[in-house]
Design goal:
With 79 residues, the protein is mainly α. It contains 6 helices and no strands. It has a domain of 47 residues. The chain is 75% helix and 0% strand. The chain starts with 7 loop residues before the first helix and ends with a helix.
């Protein structure tokens, strides 16, 4: 049987104001890693669907030459 929410007891003991980064780390990295990746991919595509952003990325060739950096930058913003 899967051990769902195995970090839940740790998260429940943490103070949301003092330990918000640790809570996010545990939730994104251990409790919901697949969901976090899916949300990141949707955020990435949603951003690039904006005409002004896609025009800029096309002009600068950022998405063609540095797609991984764009992905990583989007990931940082989602934290």
């Amino acid at each position: 049987m899967l051990n769902c929410h195995k970090h839940l007891h740790i998260i429940q003991q943490l103070d949301p104001e003092k330990n918000c980064w640790q809570i996010c780390h545990l939730m994104q990295g251990y409790e919901f890693p697949w969901e976090t990746i899916q949300a990141l991919e949707v955020a990435l595509m949603e951003t690039y669907c904006l005409p002004s952003i896609s025009k800029l990325l096309n002009k600068t060739r950022e998405f063609i030459h540095r797609a991984q950096k764009r992905y990583d930058d989007t990931s940082i913003l989602s934290c």
